[in-house]
Write a structure and sequence with these properties.
homodimer, mainly alpha, 74% helix, 0% strand, disordered C terminus, DNA-binding
DNA sequence: GTCTATAATGAGATAGAC
DNA sequence: GTCTATCTCATTATAGAC
């Protein structure tokens, strides 16, 4: 369904691919249209011709893969729900595994895409584009998480989902912390190992939320602060 | 020990503060030296006079608060260890709570600082500066986490720490996901509630790592993929 | 659709007076 | 330490030929 090594045929795709690569490496403002068209092997004017503005090019970069990613996640979730009542781990798996699969086997573009997403900042540009493309699917997964802890209020499922997204996105950010801090014993690029650790990690975390909600501040009070 | 609302007295500090604010909002490349000196209320040339290059200004912005943060974290950790054998929750508390306290009560600069850290990308600029300022303290916390799970290899403590850092940093990033996805029921700016949920969340997650290491890929195989 | 050329602006950094 | 003025180069975007 995805065509990893296929070289871009149209100049439009070439620009899109180059923009994705460079945005992921240096951020939106760290890259000029000249850099992008240079890497794409097309002339400067092609960027404006196809996309008008740099802002719009960025938007298209995010949008292009968002749909495929959402589709994969929802397909996994629906398959799960048809098979019966899923466990928390299964729901997290349905959310995280497509990210892993596409990032590692979907071609270099997908890896760049995941690193790019991890650079989202608090500014309007990011807030709008992420909300527009990901919130709807996010709500489906929050509902599925909530179904695994039906006695808890939905707000706790939201909190668990948001914490999980932060953890996952950071794991795909391309920071080499894991390698560095382990002195090379662990490999930050072994995303499979990270995902396999992360899913039970997050599931266990989410399961603590109902009780930590009740005894709120326990850790804080224990330190007398 | 920190003086939140004190206005900067020197032009050097004014530039540093303005740079911190603007970098946090728009990222390194999203801000010009003119923007910074403009907000600081000083002339353009003062930036070069005090800091030489923009790169160096950025470095100083990160460095300035890194020391205070590391000191607070280490003090909390040492106090803990003097009091006996700490629980995993206590170690995480010692790591996260200074971040929370400074971010919410250390003045606007600290809040900006935490948002800025969350924008770290995979590029050299970030990797170098974060490694230089934070790796040493990170190793102390990894050791403390490892002491809570002594039968597991240290690599698992590293993995738990790295996942935890990602979760924490994302929680302080200023993305308003929690508010948006909960329809306003939860408040993304209530960092206290987030920290109080996060600490047991992460502790539970770390405790799963030894077992998920042994039965690696269980969730994956269950889905037959 | 693709190119050259250029317009219009903004960037980082510095020289040199005070 | 602080200022004005400026150098030099890169930036986004567009006009208009082919």
């Amino acid at each position: 369904m995805t065509h990893p090594p296929e070289p871009p045929v149209t100049s439009r795709q070439a620009v899109l691919d180059a923009a994705e690569t460079l945005f992921a490496e240096h951020g939106y403002d760290g890259v000029s249209i000249r850099d992008i068209t240079g890497l794409a092997g097309v002339r400067l004017a092609m960027a404006s011709y196809h996309f008008g503005s740099k802002e719009n090019l960025f938007d298209q970069v995010i949008a292009r893969r968002a749909e495929a990613l959402n589709r994969a996640r929802r397909a996994a979730l629906e398959a799960l729900q048809r098979a019966g009542k899923p466990e928390l781990e299964d729901v997290l798996h349905a959310f995280i595994w497509p990210y892993f699969t596409l990032s590692t086997q979907g071609g270099a573009g997908w890896a760049s895409y995941c690193r790019l997403i991890a650079q989202s900042g608090p500014g309007d540009r990011w807030r709008d584009v992420l909300s527009r493309h990901f919130d709807e699917t996010a709500q489906m997964f929050i509902t599925a998480i909530h179904a695994c802890m039906p006695r808890a209020p939905r707000a706790l499922a939201v909190r668990g989902f948001v914490l999980s997204v932060g953890t996952m996105v950071s794991a795909f950010s391309g920071n080499r912390r894991l390698t560095r801090l382990s002195g090379g014993e662990l490999d930050a690029e072994d995303l499979r190992a990270t995902c396999e650790a992360m899913i039970p990690f997050l599931a266990a975390g989410i399961r603590t939320l109902p009780s930590s909600g009740r005894k709120a501040g326990a850790a804080a009070r224990r330190k007398g602060k």
